[in-house]
Each structure stands twice: as structure tokens, then as C-alpha cells.
Design goal:
The chain has seven helices and nine strands. It has 211 residues and is an alpha+beta fold.
């Protein structure tokens, strides 16, 4: 009987060894890990795992929750059936784009609404404040096959002032994880981004990390 394929989401305090325990439990139960993504933020960590296993969905969740209880891990677990690759690819072509501007309330909402207006699905996001007043969003978006990249890019450039913000070019998605894209040390970006408000000195112009 073929294995079931799931997407497992876990959220809890950032504790050393959590992933090791989870990976070992899945392996001991006859399962295997595929793609894995993790994000840490202010003492907490979220992990998404692609899991193939002979266990039924309910049983897999029970096994992971029992592991959390055994090791006193404050962990929330969600298990969903994975969407087939051929279906998930129907999202269209993926592009990476950087948006930046003065940090203010509603900035992220404004950018997200603009992208949604042009039917761009946000499939990856790495965002945060840089310096005192600059906010940076490194996004990975899905462009529908029925849309023209040139037309969408032109529209975004003409409407980005509504946010207000600045936007970089839409580049074909890198093969690397989105976190490793956001090493903003490029001279062109350094001049237009880090000196946008004059608040970040050269000594503070470190690569923009992802946590």
C-alpha cells in the first residue's frame, strides 16, 4: 500500500532539539521527510514539513502530539493531505519582487491589496523593519498563466505610489529558499533602500536576515 502524503504544520516555543525529536518519530513510524521550512520569531518557531508515511492522518497527529507530551514540548500540530504537485503548479509562474518604503501602519496591507488587485498570489514572504523608518518586503508571487508579466509589472510601478512605496523588478523565482534571497547587500538596493530615509549608517547596512 502506498504511503499517504501530508503537509504537517507545527508551532511552539523555540527549543533546541524539537525538530530532531519530530524527525526521529516520523522516521521510526516508517515515514520520510521531503521539503522542510522553518521560521523563528521572538522566541517562537513555526515549521512546515512534507511527510510521506503509512500512518492515517489522525494517527500521525496523535503520534506527534504524544511526542510533544512525552518531552514536555509546548507544540501545536496540524496535519493536512498534501495537494498533488501537478495541481499546485497550476498557480502559474513564480517571481521574486522586493517592495520597500517608510515604515508605517497599514504598509503590509497596502502592498498585499495591490498585489491581490492584479491577481498575484503571495506564496512566500520575508519582511521586517530595517533601520529606524524603512520597511522591506521580499515577496515570492505566483503570476497566473493568463496574465502578462510586462503588463502587470507596469501596472504595479504606476500604482505603487498609492501605498506609498517603491518596488523592484519582478525576477524569475530563485531555486533557493526565499530566506536566502533576502541578503540585501546589492549596491543598487543599498543606495536606494538603506539611504532612503538617511537613517541607516554604512556600519548598520548588514544583510537583511530572516531569523
Amino acid at each position: 500500500m502506498p504511503d499517504y502524503e501530508y503537509i504537517v504544520g507545527m508551532f511552539g516555543k523555540d527549543l533546541t532539539g524539537t525538530l530532531a525529536e519530530v524527525a526521529r518519530r516520523i522516521s521510526d513510524d516508517g515515514g520520510n521527510l521531503g521539503k522542510c521550512q522553518s521560521l523563528r520569531m521572538r522566541g517562537y518557531q513555526g515549521v512546515i514539513l512534507e511527510v510521506s508515511t503509512p500512518l492515517m492522518r489522525k494517527r500521525l497527529r496523535e503520534r506527534l502530539l504524544s511526542l510533544a507530551k512525552e518531552h514536555d514540548l509546548p507544540l501545536e500540530v496540524q496535519v493536512e493531505f498534501a495537494i498533488p504537485e501537478e495541481v499546485s503548479r497550476l498557480r502559474g509562474q513564480q517571481y521574486d519582487v522586493c517592495v520597500w518604503g517608510e515604515e508605517r501602519r497599514g504598509f503590509v496591507a497596502g502592498v498585499a491589496e495591490l498585489l491581490t488587485r492584479h491577481k498575484l498570489n503571495i506564496s512566500g514572504l520575508d519582511a521586517g523593519a530595517v533601520g529606524e523608518r524603512t520597511y522591506v518586503m521580499q515577496l515570492r508571487v505566483d503570476l497566473p498563466e493568463t496574465s502578462s508579466k510586462a503588463e502587470v509589472e507596469t501596472a504595479l510601478r504606476s500604482e505603487i505610489h498609492e501605498v506609498p512605496a517603491q518596488i523592484g523588478p519582478m525576477e524569475p523565482a530563485s531555486a533557493t529558499l526565499i530566506g536566502s534571497i533576502a541578503q540585501i547587500r546589492d549596491v543598487r538596493l543599498k543606495q536606494s533602500l538603506f539611504h532612503l530615509d538617511g537613517a541607516v549608517a554604512d556600519a548598520s547596512s548588514l544583510p537583511y536576515g530572516t531569523g
